[in-house]
Fold this protein.
Amino acid sequence: MRRRQFVSLLGGSALSPLAALPVYAAPPGGCDTPVARDDGWPVASVNEDKLIDRAALCRMADQLVASSANVHSVLVARAGKLVFERYFRGSDETFTGLYIRQLGNVAFDADTLHDMKSASKSVASLALGIALDRGLIRSVNEPIFSFFPELSDLRSPEKDRLLVVHALTMSMGLKWVEASPDHNYDNDEVRMNFAPDPCRYVLALPVTAPAGQEFFYNTGALRLVSAIVRKATGRPLDEFARETLFEPMGITKAEWVRVRGDADTGGGLRLRPRDMAKIGQLVLAGGRWNDRQIVSKAWIDASMTPRIEATSDFSYGYLWWLGRSPVQWA
């Protein structure tokens, strides 16, 4: 279970508090004014956007420093431009394929890769959408077993009802235990990663509910998504995403861990915060980045449509959490 929440895909994840305060030096343009870089991001000047309360954003960042919260970065974009950017010092870790490796106390900046954890799932959804756009996958209603003829011995009348859409909506109805922390090595995600054939491990699990009926968080669904994209495109999902999603967006520095030959789409992606913000801007713009259509608007709209109730406050689309987070203002 590697779930981390990002601030609108534009910020860092909250880990455990640090004993030492983060280090910060103001950029030359003023309090946390983004610096123009050759990465495709337009940058707003200090006085350009009158609706941005830069002083309030700076106070917020200062409070993060004072609280020793392990936030790695905060970026704000509005109207297609970066308007605020600050980086901090914090503890970090990386997943090496089967084990978590602690990276220690890291001084983050615009070029530091950040562990996306389970936000990787939403990026995998974009890659699968591109495969659909190109006709490499015919439909989200394709039976999952049609991609795995080598696993036909696992088929049953109940499992034959499993469709790609059920993996995308976490509604496969297979028994899956992911509640215990992954460092305890006592959950299905870890057992899947250690299995000789992770897809066989997932599809061999017993049925607990009819497919499509209940939401149940299942990172095993992402192992199937990763393998489906590989089988449909002839390339591992990370390579397909690099060519069709990252490179067209100018994302030149990214890491995506592989486990047993497939990209760990459940949580193995590391991106720079500015590139994370690009993903958010792409979705906000209906699949476009800098006037280029990267993913079809139809796929973005389909992904952002509530498909199944996940919690009392959130529904789930195609590997995207959908809902509102109430904020208690002081």
